Amino acid sequence: MAKINISFFIPHVGCPHKCSFCNQNSITGQSKIPHAEDIKSTLNKAMNEIDKSDRENTEISFFGGSFTAIKREYMIELLSSAQPFIGKGKFSGIRISTRPDYIDKDILTLLRDNHVTTIELGCQSMNNEVLTANERGHTRQDVINASELIKEFGFRLGLQMMVGLYKSTPEIDMYTAEEIVKLSPNEARIYPVVIMENTRLGDLFKSGEYVPFSFECAVKLSSKILSLFEKNGIAVIKLGLHASEVVEKDCIGGFYHPAFRELCESELYKNEIIQMLQSCSKNVRKAVISVSPKFVSKVIGQKRSNIEYFKSIGIDIKVVQSDRQKEKIRLIKTE
Length: 335
Ligand code: SF4
Hints:
Elements: E1 4-9, H1 24-28, H2 36-49, H3 52-55, E2 58-63, H4 72-82, E3 93-98, H5 105-113, E4 116-124, H6 128-133, H7 140-152, E5 156-163, H8 170-182, E6 187-192, E7 194-196, H9 200-207, H10 215-231, E8 235-239, H11 245-250, E9 251-254, H12 260-278, E10 286-291, H13 296-300, H14 305-312, E11 316-321, E12 329-334
Parallel strand pairs: 1-2, 2-3, 3-4, 4-5, 5-6, 6-8, 10-11
Antiparallel strand pairs: 7-9, 10-12
The structure holds iron/sulfur cluster.
The site of iron/sulfur cluster has 11 residues, from loops.
């Protein structure tokens, strides 16, 4: 069953950093800082709107800033306001996102005592040069230390990485993904870089100092990372930024697409079909692929991109819907 989040955005509060890509106010689309009364009224409403059976699958989420870096008083205000809404018949716990260099035993004890269940760390890259070039202010070792401590305390761990940062390469991004696998998080988010107005990355991009790799390369690379994580049992809960008017308005470059994940999934299906065709003993010119109804559009690709790709290499692909519920994709006929 898919998890439900009741999300509160805490834009830039308490964050002393200015990461090259970050314009929190644009990303969250708001600059209002929520307080206890806002939290309580939203959660009261959510209690009425979310069925009892779904509540145990619902987390109260504090996103947007670096939760463990905000003033202790404010953090406790937010955590305390959520407590009456957690427990039997209510929501399952709290999810926060933060930086790896703001994790220690004291803070984890405080979070555990306040029913925090999941901690997401923005690791972004596991290469120190990339981290420095993008002014992250933490190192690869900080990510390792924080991840290990979070798991020791029994929290669910989520790691976030970016694809295509300033000074990164496809090889470095793949290395980051492999390092993340070694830390065995429960889940991950993959964010291909979106260059926003009013950020340092934006300035570097406009001056020509930062030249991101191609969109096609970002899709191929992100799909490889998606596949790597899924093969290792890491749930990819997000791939690409949320589509929003604010992001669309302030985005000046990089890899924004409202359905980025679907592009990557189509790429993976394309690779799967290539492998199926290569395993045929004859030189295939026509093929019929049977696909579960819910994957048909991904197999075909946006604007029929996969069908067109195979046509361009001389192979005519026909996709038919499978009537076998559990079947994802199968080659049923070739000529
Ligand atoms: S640490 Fe997070 S909130 Fe702070 S500047 Fe970096 S990305 Fe933005």
